Fold:
Amino acid sequence: MAALGIGTSQLYRNGATVATSNLSLTSACRISRHALHTSPNLPIIDLSDPLSSSTKSKLHAAAQKFGAFYVTYKTHAWPLSNLPLSPMQAADTLFALPSELKLRNAVDSGGSGFTRGYVGVGEESGSEVLEWKEAFSYGYEWANTNQSWTNSLEGDNVWPEKMFGVKETLLGIQSAMVGVALTLCGNLHPSMKYEGDARATGEAISFTRVFRYYPLPPELLSKPNAATGSSVHTDWGALTVIYQDENRSHNDCLQMLHKDDTHGEKWISAPAIERTFFVNVGDYTSLLSKGQFHSPLHRVLPPPAGSSPRTSYVMFYYPAFNTPVPETEVAEGRRMSLLEDQRVGAGSSGNGKSARTFGEYITMKWSEVYRPRTE
Structure:
C-alpha cells in the first residue's frame, strides 16, 4: 500500500486516486490560512460542580451563538492526569505499528456502520476530497465476552496485541469524555437527561476516534484542492468532545465557520487550551432544539508543511439507537450533514432514505463516508 512519498513505514492508505474535486465545497476545502480571522473568545465551562443557573445560561448562550465551547474542571482533578500513559504517548504507540498489523486490525463494517479498529489514510471522507489522515476507532468496552447485540452499531472493540497501557489509557480517555457529554446533555435539553445502562444512555453506540493528521506531501501540495485533513461538515450526533495536542503549530488546524455582524461568515480557529476539552453541538441536538442550538460547520486543515503530525481524540456522543430523529424544518441556508447524502458523486442533496431512528440514520451515514480500500 503506497504512501505517496511519505517517508515512513507506519503510514498506510487505500491507494485511492487523488483528483481535484469540482464540488461546490471546493472553495471551502481550500487549504488556506490567510482568510482566517482571530477566534472570538469561546467560553470555558467549569464542570467541577453541578452547573449553577449562571453557568447553565453561559452554556446555552455558547450553544446558540457558536455551537461550540471548551469545558474544564477548575477545582477537581483533571480526569486525564492518572492514566497509565499520556494521551499522546498512547497515540504514538498506536500509529507506530507496521502497516501489516494495522491492516490486520482494520475496520471492517460490512456496510453496518459499526467502526472499530484502524482506518487508513483515504479510507473515509465526508466529500470527494481525499482526507489525509488515519485513525483508530474504539467504543464501549463490554464486560461480557459472549454479549448478544441488539443493533448493528454494537460490538466488540479491536485491540492490537502487546501494547502496554494503551487499551487502559484509551478507555480512561473515553470514560472522561462520556462523563463530559452526559453532564452537558442533561443541561442542554430536558429529553437529553440520559439515565440507565449504556444502551439507554447511548453510550453503547457512541465511540471515540484517535485521529492522526499528516502534513501533505509535495505530490498533494502541488495539486490545489486535492486533499485536506477533514472535509467541511457538521457532526451527526448529540455532542462531540475533543481532546487535541497542544502543539502551537497546529493551532489553526481545527476551524469552525462562524457568522457575526462585523466579519460576516468567516473561518475561526479552535486551538487546544491546556486541560480543557473542546465541545461542539451535533445535528441531533440542533434538530431537537428546533434550531435554537447551532451545529457548526467545521473542518480540519492538514498541519503546516514541515511540522509534526497532529493528534486528536474525538468522542462522538450519540443518543440511544432507537431514539427518533426530530422532524424539524432546517433553516434556509443551514447545512446538516446528517440529512445530506455524502456518497461520492452525490453532491450535498438530501439522502432520500426512509430511516426514522437515530441508529438507522447513523448506520446509513457511516456507509456513505466509507471509501473502500483498493489493493
Remarks:
- The radius of gyration is 19 Å.
- The first strand starts at residue 44 and ends at 46.
